[in-house]
């Protein structure tokens, strides 16, 4: 029998209210982060275009991000938030002791790794971008040595974020990424225009932004009792290690895939990595605003319901209801966002980046990459809450194994065309979409084996969202030439106004369709949006 989609049956009202509060805070931070991220990319395009040095910085930027993901990033959601949450419920003193231990070990381990990367930077540059010429490789090595120390601050920031999430203090962590992006923008503008720096301004900005993330969150730990301590026999370390080991193995494979992607992209032309990164920045906006916000908001509740389900098996139904609520919210928002970006790819890229050193040809190539990335956007969006469902049940092995399988999807899709012709940038972008799609479909199948998602409103949500997005897409396609004829996009202001009008029209069409189709969870979305309106 199909379940009623009211909040009273899909999730308790208090849980739904908590979801809205947490999601609104995280979404607010993500809005600020993504806007500043777009500003960051706009500044990079203005100052340096889509040139070889920008590709060199992208490779150097990858190193601290990869190391953070390997050492801490995967551990935050999969292990730290569940374990810290458990300690926070039982004993705050024990929580501070465990947090002190994790922070102390992180400082020691990461410092050693940073030293190794600094010494081996030339060899790492060859592994990451072997297709670059000697001059560009030398620049990559130099930038890599500037950016690598940032991994220490990123790691400390990630652990503090996990601690604050466990304490349900979402405000400061929500704005760490915004602080990071703002720092890069400020340092780049000041460094280039006042101090005469070159591309290294971006590397200095990245390092400063990582440190600023730590400083921002420290007030949230005002009541914490932290100290430097090393205790390798702490009982929680074994539990964290058991949860993290599968994640670490999976991340090693995925980071290898990222390194391979960069290496292959460096062989398709010096500008390819720059084009791909600009397109990725746009893709990350809806992912962060929608999928990440909702996934992080439901994680603490999913963790609590997972524990309750172990004691009372009937509570598994509540767990699946909360997961389904998160998935429906993601689908309701991500499907129209995907359609809108596909139709408006060129004007969006042109408005954001086409100025200074960024040429119309760069716009064309970035828009092409963007459209191909969009093929996997919806699947990437639903993948995150599915992964978090397993993390909440303290099962990190399954997502790691699926990640390994997905890398196989990527390799086949990326390398198969190269058997018949030279490798192209588009091959790598399509392969990325194949990887994301395959991962999400396998995770969806596995979650259904845990407990069925049927009867929880996902099918009607997808159907109605596609119908509404189709109507919206038709409106955007018809309105775009009319608006551009009435308001030619000759400068940033006219571009922004024209694009804003088109998006507002599309949003209105989708909202009307959602109301007419009686799309589920509109009341939750309304509550979420009302939290951003002035009182």
Write the layout of secondary structure elements.
Layout: H1 7-10, H2 13-48, H3 52-90, H4 92-119, H5 121-129, H6 134-147, H7 150-166, H8 171-174, H9 176-193, H10 200-217, H11 235-266, H12 272-311, H13 316-343, H14 345-353, H15 360-374, H16 377-392, H17 397-415, H18 425-450, H19 458-486, H20 492-516, H21 522-530
Helix pairs in contact: 2-9, 2-12, 2-21, 3-4, 3-6, 3-7, 3-11, 3-12, 3-16, 4-7, 5-6, 6-10, 7-10, 9-10, 11-17, 12-13, 12-15, 12-16, 13-16, 13-19, 14-15, 14-20, 15-18, 16-18, 17-18, 19-20
Q: What does the radius of gyration come to?
A: 23 Å
Straight-line N-to-C gap: 41 Å
Give the structural class. mainly alpha
Topology pattern, helix = H, strand = E: HHHHHHHHHHHHHHHHHHHHH
Number of strand elements: 0
In short:
81% of the residues lie in helices and 0% in strands. The protein is mainly α and 535 residues long.
How would you describe this protein?
The protein has about 525 residues and is mostly helical. It has a domain of about 220 residues. The protein is built from 21 helices and no strands. Helix 7 packs parallel to helix 10. The longest helix is centred in the middle third of the chain and has 40 residues. The N terminus is likely disordered.
